[in-house]
Amino acid sequence: MAPNLGMDLSNLDVQHAKIVATASGATEVVAADADHEIRVVAYAFITDTAEGVKFQSATTDLTGVMTAGANGGISCGFNPAGWFETAKNEALNINLATGTIVLGGHVSYVKC
To answer: How far apart are CA 109 and CA 83, in angstroms?
Structure first.
């Protein structure tokens, strides 16, 4: 039985995108939507080397730098209120601090 979160989640149109990043700088995870913000409701990533990672709305930081150790990662479970969101008409990016690595994962999001 699902937990009672005090809100109706039946109309929540959750979408999913994979994260694949292999170079320093920004990598687009979800394309910009001219009519909506992108609200991240869950995410996870793993990296093969120690890495500093942050999420961005285009070039604006949405999170601080999260440091994951080699073969480590971060996971934030479902949060219907969202962990963070982009501005309208801005892509959701993941930004890596250092050079060539392998970082993979996924995000779950809603457009609002």
So the answer is: 10
